[in-house]
Amino acid sequence: MQFEFENPTRIVFGAGSLARLGEIVARYGKRALLVTGGGSVKKSGTFDRAVKSLADAGVEVFECSGVEPNPKISSVRRGAATARENACDVIVALGGGSTMDASKAISAAVFYDGDPWDMIYHGQPNPHVPTKALPLIAVPTLAATGSETNCGAVISNAETTEKSFMSTDCLYPKVAVMDPELTASVPKDQTAYGVCDLITHVTEVYLNAADTTPLQDRISEGVILTAMEYGPKAIANGNDIEARAQVQWAASVALIGWTQAGAGGAGFPVHMIEHTVSAFHDITHAAGLAIINPAWMRFAAKSNTKKFVQFAERIFGLTAKGPDDLGCALAGIDRFEAFLKSIDCPTRFSELGIDGSQIETYAKETLRIINDGKGNLPARPPMTEADIVAVLRAAL
Ligand code: NZQ
Ligand code: ZN
To answer: Which of 46, 101, 178 to mutate to test the pocket of ligand 1 (most atoms within 8 A of CB)?
Structure first.
């Protein structure tokens, strides 16, 4: 096991921590671009409280609102222009993963003279990967992506029907202000999708990684068990701040880098396939994951049975006849799918009105954006185009 790890994001966690936003932002700048989504933070009163905290700390606010779910590059261009015009020196992201991801891209786009879409990974070594960005303070209002404590940003381009990412050190938020009270207004469906997203972030590593990851596995199992215990409570009662807090911390831990360190490059195949389907249909990210992940698991379990048996035993308490008991592995996947259904996540494309007519295109597009140099999607086992088609077909 060899790895290099650094996550420089300072975490300020706890109910009420929004009140500290101004004081925290003022350490980094005096002219803040405040980025928000489609209006939820205005409805909940979070926006006004954030603005007041910033004003009290002497921070001037310039607004970039209207970032859409599956954030579009057009919003990044708009945000960067506003930041430049107003000489903003710090970015504040107040919203879900979409708002935080757009904010990250804006923070780098401010320093880039060309079109910010150049900075996105397109399947070839990219000379425009950003190396410089304005300081970003992330204030998540939805527990899901873990974007607040990682350096990834996923951006969509409606003109090219692409959804891809940038992931580089300068995009780590300086501070994540994680106030679980801000997530109390998240509706039941988005809460459930968040639970599905965070679980998928760890299964992508757990089920694709090298075998020698005992600690990483147990961190992942802790994340999954915590999400499965507190997720349904947060869905049942949105004002259960204890449950909201547990889910929010689980979402952050899931993608903060701890499970990936030393895991040998996991590939995230379910995400890569989902991003393509999202690019075509603009579906909610984790609704796509809930559909693709069980189908992918049934495909991968045949060749990586041991790890799936471990998943079945440790997460669902099943008892295998031995480490190669495929029946037990598949029973664990059935139980996982049943959990997703129990929190009302879709598990088949037909539930979203997506048919199989473009499946071959999704597979080709996924491999165009990311492949291992031999034409396969990095995963365990590596996936050929035919494998991706088969998984998508099984999910119809
Ligand atoms: O836009 P507003 O009005 O704020 O409403 C949002 C949106 O409709 C709403 N919402 C957010 N906070 C709320 C709230 N509603 C009520 N009360 C609140 N407190 O929820 C809806 C979904 O928001 P969005 O930000 O799109 O959700 P999420 O956090 O799940 O982010 C999804 C995006 O993140 C990307 C996804 O691909 C997708 O584009 N991802 C980013 C990752 C990363 N940066 O690390 C990793 C993930 O795997 C993922 O790919
Ligand atoms: Zn995700």
So the answer is: 101
Would you say residue 123 has pLDDT above 90? no
Place of tokens 């190396």: 131
**H or E element: which one contains 101?**
helix 97-109
Residue 61 Cα to chain centre, angstroms:
27
So what's the pLDDT on residue 264?
86
Q: Chain-centre distance of CA 288, in angstroms? A: 12
To test the pocket of ligand 1, the residue of 285, 289, 293, 369 to mutate (highest count of ligand atoms within 8 Å of its CB) is 285
Instruction: Please write the tens of the pLDDT for every residue from 297-342.
Output: 999 999 999 999 999 999 999 999 999 999 999 999 999 999 999 9
**9 C-beta closer than 6 A to ligand 1:** no
Residue closest by Cα to atom 16 of ligand 1? 186
Nearest residue (CA) to ligand 1, atom 26? 69
- Distance between CA atoms of 82 and 87, rounded to whole angstroms? 8
Q: Which fold has domain 188-394?
A: Dehydroquinate synthase-like, alpha domain (1.20.1090)
Pick among 3.40.50.300, 2.60.120.620, 2.60.120.200, 3.40.50.1970: CATH of 10-183: 3.40.50.1970
| Residue 166: predicted pLDDT | 95
Domain boundaries, the chain: 10-183, 188-394
